[in-house]
Each structure stands twice: as C-alpha cells, then as structure tokens.
Write a structure and sequence with these properties.
Order of helices and strands: HEHEEHEHEEHEEHE
Radius of gyration: 16 Å
Oligomer: single chain
Strand order of the largest sheet: 3-2-1-4-5-8-7
CATH class: Alpha Beta
Low-confidence stretches: none
Helix content: 10-25%
Largest sheet: 7 strands, mixed
C-alpha cells in the first residue's frame, strides 16, 4: 500500500497532495490517539497538513505559529527554536508518542526536528529546500532568531532530512509531486513487507523557486 503513494495525492487543505497521502499512510499503519503537532500552522487551515484530519476525521492536537497569524485559541502563537521546542510540547501536554508532526517554519526546520528527543511522532512531514542537488546534505546554519526573508536561505535539503530521519529511526516514504514536502514514517510503524525506495527514486523537485540569498550567509553540511 505504501509502495507508490503518488496516485494517492489529493488536496483538501494541504499545500500539495499531503492530505491524501497521510490518509493512505494511516490506513496502512493505523493510529495511536489521533494526535498531531503542527508548526508553523498559519491560521490552522491554510496549507495545513492537519486541518483535514482535525475537521473531518476526529483528530486533535497542537497548532503553533510564530507570526501574528496565531490567534492564541486554535493556533498558539509561539516562536519555535531548538532550545524551546520540547518545553513547548510539555507546556501544551503533547503525549510522548503521537501520530503526526508537521514542520514548516522556513528556517530552522532541520535543527528543530534534530532537537526533539523525548517525543516520538510516528509520521513526520517536513518542507525541504530544493536549491540543492539530490545528494547534498545541507542546512542553514542555526540561529535561534532566524526569520525567513523570502530568499533561498531557509530550511535544509532533502538529503539532509533523510540523513536526520535515518538517524532518528525513520524511513523516507514519499515526496509530494505538487510541493517540496517529504513524509517520513517511524521504522517500527512500517508494515513488515515495506521495501524502502532510494532518494533518487523519491526526489521529484529540483528547481529553485525563491530568489537567491544576497547576504552570503553560511550553509552547513550535515
């Protein structure tokens, strides 16, 4: 069921076809408590990877947004860093094992996922930077106060996230064909007959869609 997820792509609220792919993944691996965490979450609907699950499938969870789009009720206004992410999970009562983590903060995405050690999401969705060749494992240098300035200086490459996911015990199962988002499943949740695909087979995006960085800021190979 998870061999080729592209035909299952469909959009309700998500940026690309993540809504349909997530439904297919959970049909295969099941859920524990239908809990999610999503940041940045905008208004809780726009380009959301969790709105369809929350509004139509009985899921609950934590939505966080660093900008003033966070209203404090549905979407908590929190600026997330590697230093505070686990404290925020504790503050809002996130269970140690939960079903879905969605990361899209256009900056320290790699470093924030790297910092999550005491919590185990079964599925992770993360936006990656398509500036790099498919074998380049590269991320922006960490700066806790980083805010995206609409240039190409943001996030990390797909290969960087794959290396991080592998180290954390995840398998890359899909990259969306509509938007540069990657989906990882916890190895212990995967069906026993699942056969992983190579990065070359899964990578579908390789074009730059943001203006180049003019600040000559550092990149880090990981």
């Amino acid at each position: 069921m998870l061999t080729d997820l592209t035909p299952n792509e469909s959009r309700v609220y998500s940026q690309g076809g993540e809504d349909g792919v997530l439904q297919t993944i959970y049909d295969a691996i099941g859920t524990t408590g239908k809990n999610f965490v999503e940041f940045g979450a905008w208004d809780g609907k726009h380009l959301s990877n969790t709105a369809n699950l929350r509004l139509h499938h009985g899921w609950t969870g934590l939505l966080m947004e660093g900008s003033d789009r966070g209203d404090g009720e549905l979407v908590k206004r929190e600026f997330i860093s590697a230093e505070n992410v686990e404290a925020l999970f504790e503050k809002y009562g996130v269970p140690q094992t939960f079903d879905l983590l969605s990361i899209d903060i256009d900056g320290n995405d790699y470093w924030v996922w790297n910092a999550i050690e005491r919590y185990t999401p079964r599925v992770v969705v993360v936006e990656y930077n398509i500036l790099f060749t498919r074998d380049a494992a590269t991320t922006i240098a960490y700066a806790a106060d980083h805010v995206w300035d609409k240039t190409s200086y943001h996030g990390a490459s797909l290969a960087a996230f794959q290396k991080l996911g592998t180290r954390k015990g995840y398998t890359l199962v899909h990259t969306d064909s509509w938007a540069p988002n990657a989906l990882f499943v916890l190895n212990t949740a995967l069906p026993t007959d699942y056969k992983p695909k190579s990065l070359e087979e899964l990578a579908v995006w390789d074009e730059l869609v943001a203006p180049p960085d003019t600040g000559d800021r550092p990149w880090v190979n990981v």
